[in-house]
Write a structure and sequence with these properties.
The complex is a heterodimer of chains A (120) and B (207). Chain A is α/β, with parallel strands linked by helices. In chain A, strands 2-1-3-4-5 form a five-stranded parallel sheet, sandwiched between helices. In chain A, helix 1 links the parallel strand 1 and strand 2. The longest helix of chain A has 14 residues. The two termini of chain A are 12 Å apart. In chain B, strands 1, 2, 3, 4, 5, 6, 7 and 8 form an eight-stranded antiparallel sheet that branches. Helices cover 46% and strands 28% of the residues of chain B. The two termini of chain B are 28 Å apart. Chain B contains six helices and eight strands; from the N terminus they run αββαββααββαββα. The chains are: A alpha/beta (120), B alpha+beta (207).
Chain lengths: 120, 207
């Protein structure tokens, strides 16, 4: 499985990787800017795309909408500390599969992968 | 702007909910017990803001701040003593390999910014959810300076120094590491009125 993590913070990406459960085999690729995120999403065929919300160029939900227009088919997950109901409602409206609240930990990531089995 | 006892109590309770959430998230990040003081509320002129903080005006601090927009206007700050930042970053990323070629200082700044983003966003998100409003948060900004400079440059820029701000602040302390930070939210007068009105509406709905 290939996961694309889109987050402007390299620390956030490192924390996600560090909390990845050992029993889950996957390749994690990351993008910190909009251009590289679009390129990775459209050309590297990820199986799952995880978006940060609060990013300088464009928020994660707006970026997701632009990827949908480019017919990216991978399921979307939002990973953010900004869990305002308005943000979650908008994520659901554009068909995000799940929201993980930052900070991530092994338990939250394990749960995500359990849920992922149900989506497939 | 003057607050009565009931208004002050309502704002303290809202701040308490936000800061409690921030303490929970900080505890998860650092894997440590976080002691939280009861938030304090103060109405102060902008030009006297530095005086209400427990930090000496000339003391060097690291500050992560985010602008608030949407239903409420203001700023939110997370302030740490510069000397405590290394401990904080080590607690967060101590076991993680830093990628080759990354400057330690740059990485520390970035890690502090992410800590600030998580703490501020979680605090404001729970406040927005309780009040059923939307608060837009800017991307986090990292500053190293003294508190006097921060107040002067980042709060006075567009505002009249004689205007009053409501300041909600609380100190969070990591028990095992002796690291503590202050979370501070400054709100303009019209935002305070909106917030109190929202609290009043919700209280009526509950009864």
């Amino acid at each position: 499985m290939k996961i694309l993590l889109i987050d402007d913070s390299p620390t956030s990406v490192l924390l996600f990787k560090a909390n990845m459960p050992e029993d889950i085999e996957c390749e994690i690729i990351s993008a910190h800017k909009v251009a590289s995120a679009v390129e990775a999403a459209t050309e590297q065929d990820p199986d799952l795309i995880i978006f940060d919300y609060n990013m300088p160029e464009m928020n994660g939900l707006d970026l997701a909408e632009s990827l949908l227009k480019k017919e990216v088919k991978a399921p979307f997950v939002l990973c953010t500390a900004n869990v305002q109901q308005s943000v979650i409602d908008k994520a659901k409206a554009i068909n995000f599969k799940s929201v993980i609240e930052k900070p991530v930990n092994e338990k939250k990531i394990s749960q995500l992968f359990e849920d992922l089995k149900l989506w497939n | 702007m003057e607050l009565g006892a009931q208004e002050s109590d309502a704002l303290t309770e809202i701040a308490n909910i936000g800061v409690s959430k921030a303490a929970t998230q900080l505890s998860q990040l650092l894997k440590d017990v976080i002691h939280m003081e009861v938030p304090r509320i103060a109405v102060v002129p902008i030009n006297q803001l530095g005086e209400v903080l427990d930090i000496k005006p000339e003391e060097e601090v690291v500050c992560i701040y985010q602008d608030l927009d949407g239903h409420f206007n203001g700023k939110s700050f997370l302030v740490f003593h510069t000397s405590e930042c290394n401990q904080l970053v080590n607690a967060l990323i101590g076991t993680i390999d830093i990628p080759n070629g990354t400057e330690i200082k740059v990485f520390e700044h970035e890690a502090m910014t992410e800590i600030g983003n998580i703490i501020i966003s979680s605090c404001l998100s729970v406040i927005a959810n309780v009040l059923d409003v939307t608060i837009e948060l800017s991307v986090p900004n990292y500053i190293e300076s003294n508190i006097h400079d921060i107040v002067t440059r980042y709060i006075n820029v567009k505002d009249d120094p004689a205007d009053h701000l409501l300041v909600l602040r609380a100190r969070l302390t990591a028990a095992q590491r002796n690291v503590s930070g202050t979370i501070m939210i400054t709100l303009s007068g019209d935002t305070v009125e909106k917030m109190l009105s929202r609290i009043s509406d919700l209280t009526r709905e509950l009864h």
